[in-house]
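Open question from group meeting: does this chain pack into something compact, or does most of it stay loose? Before anyone orders reagents, we agreed to write out a predicted structure and look at it together. Recording both the input and the output here so the notebook holds the full record.
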Amino acid sequence: MADNRKPRPGDTLLNIPDSSQTQTFSIHEDRDTEIRSVLSSVYNALRERGYNPIDQLVGYLLTEDPTYITNYKNARALIRRVDRDDVLRVLLAEYLRI
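Structure tokens returned:
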């Protein structure tokens, strides 16, 4: 049975897209943004503590040993929230600009 009520002020209307158009969905875009943010935060924390951030991040990415990352500003917990393969995918895509 169809709901033929007229919308009232404050009602949320559902916009249904034209069914002839193909909709796309990408969880990668949001995830990539999160990974970039995490890398930036970890990089800054390492730099502030006097480490060479690139060397430390490479050590972490090669070994997945969290002790390469400082606990300062919760950087170690942040880097462990993202999958190493996803980090490498984002880094490679950025480097190749694809």
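Observations to bring back to the group:
The radius of gyration is 21 Å.
The first helix runs from residue 27 to 48.
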